[in-house]
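Render this sequence as a predicted structure.
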Amino acid sequence: MLGNLKPQAPDKILALMGEFKADPRQGKIDLGVGVYKDASGHTPIMRAVHAAEQRMLETETTKTYAGLSGEPEFQKAMAELILGDGHKPETTAALATVGGTGAIRQALELARMANPDLRVFVSDPTWPNHVSIMNFMGLPVQTYRYFDAETRGVDFEGMKADISAAKKGDVVLLHGCCHNPTGANLTPEQWAEVAAILEKTGALPLIDLAYQGFGDGLEEDAAGTRLIASRIPEMLIAASCSKNFGIYRERTGCLLALCVDTATRDLAQGAMAFLNRQTYSFPPFHGAKIVSTVLNTPELRADWMAELEAVRGGMLKLREQLAAELRDLSGSDRFGFVAQHRGMFSRLGATPEQVKRIKEEFGIYMVGDSRINIAGLNQDTIPILARAIIEAGV
């Protein structure tokens, strides 16, 4: 029977990682994989995370199952981190998930349970796994314009026109901050206009919040999500702890469902627990306990926030240095968008042929659509990348 399986297309980013590892050249640069790295190319364990694990090691007395929906302390801490003073426990259902990807999958499953005929509106471009998951689930996908290839900013007029076609029962997937793969974010004023469109259409917003704290700050990065939550009666939020806590391999995520009343919250909570039971029964506990320990311990939370701010500031400096280097080499400000983008990623606007040339001639690996991971750079490699970009004719 298993011989009837069809070969699956390899994940492009994972394939690029393999190609990079096989490249024997010294000085090669990996800007493809979406993982934070420090200046030495290492993904460190954050100080507060390490301290939290030490506490857990000393105090844990059991490894028995937690609840189907996860640890209540984790759910509460994440809801407060994301929603701030706008968190309403009486109308918020919460679910611990297998990473942010698991939160996206469970969100889509929940929406389909509520409306089997839903369509999902996603930005063009979006994180490739978004569309891959939707296609695998057999969900109709409708793209909306988002990235302006000329300005490397948001095509907001196109976005507004396209999401206005959504209707009640549809899902509109929005990136909460640090848009992957482009790095181009909505302004507060644009978030308000998106909220007005969602109010008019009645479509359900699903916000993917994978990089809170990586853009303009913890509070600033949650502002768009909080604005939508304050104006739209129902919404879904899929959050990841991989990046801002640096616990990628712990696969720690959270799904929030904001509901119109307590009765609906109870329905959503029951359905979300059911979904966990059908997929993996109980969600991972270790990463969730790390997060709740950090967020609920004042000294650990303060140290985590300080280290996260240092990470964010470091990426901003790399953006500014790359933009300045490109300005000097090109004699123009056409790469100024690099400094304006936020988060780990920017889409350079290079053609696939230019991306290939940069890889072959300079040993610099980036995704075929020219998405680069800013965190894969350091002060020494930025001039190398800048020269490669200019010589490739980007």
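Summary. The chain is about 45% helix and 15% strand. Residues 65-296 form a domain with the Aspartate Aminotransferase; domain 2 fold (CATH 3.40.640.10).
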